[in-house]
Task: structure prediction
Amino acid sequence: MNIGNAAEKSGLSAKTIRYYEDIGLLQADRAGNGYRDYSMSDVHRLRFLQRSRSLGFSVEECRQLLSLYSDKDRESATVKAIAKAKLTEIDRKLAELTELRDTLRVLVRSCHGDKRPDCPIIEGLGGKDRVAA
Amino acid sequence: MNIGNAAEKSGLSAKTIRYYEDIGLLQADRAGNGYRDYSMSDVHRLRFLQRSRSLGFSVEECRQLLSLYSDKDRESATVKAIAKAKLTEIDRKLAELTELRDTLRVLVRSCHGDKRPDCPIIEGLGGKDRVAA
DNA sequence: CTTGACCTTCCACTAACTAGAACCTTTATG
DNA sequence: CATAAAGGTTCTAGTTAGTGGAAGGTCAAG
Result:
């Protein structure tokens, strides 16, 4: 499939996909006309990249995570170690994201939603220990 | 408190905190000697910024989120609308992060952790519909 | 056989930091 | 008191991770 199609399916822009190829994250086959040609497996990798990037992992971290998928030469003890380290990080991110959500939920529930600007917890959130965890 | 202290407490670097001041995200008081002076409330905001940035929100999104905390002039209907939109996004991120975690967990459990490179699901994860969601 | 959508490369620009130089202030120690 | 280390200041330049746009090649439809 062409890059536009892969872009649509993965949630990345075509530009970004080309950029990822430039930096060696994922290289595509080429069709006879010179167009890049993506398989479903490529699309899975791209989608994976889209997600991990949008969740705050750096490109280098994504490179590592991606290698868990595809690097056959890597010894599985190493795979396991990297995966475990990332799991710890993901769990931390999950906790933080949950906390952020809870904070916003309280905000949404406590606000009147009308024109009155006396939303009761805005001040509390900024100044006291609600956020400190 | 000085910037180094605020940096340590917030998880941001002093450089980043100065940068955030440059772009108008959070301006600190100045002590008599010209040093920036941070309150606990500032630290909460910084910590909040650190988290939301690390979870994949852009600086502009963070600016919005932060305004939920501190902008007294904003009408609370607007606050509520923004907060609700962000909640939806956070829920999506939570779902994706959970899925990513589950994927990695399967990987960790299925790998031998020894020297054999025949980790049984690496190939499956890359090529089939496990990731497609 | 041309029009429009899509592809190619390349170069410049933006966003969000990050490193380092040059210099000033505070604090601990001989 | 001197002075050195630690930490603060601004400024300029470099990096990372894209994004926009030009100039041009390819393909399917009318």
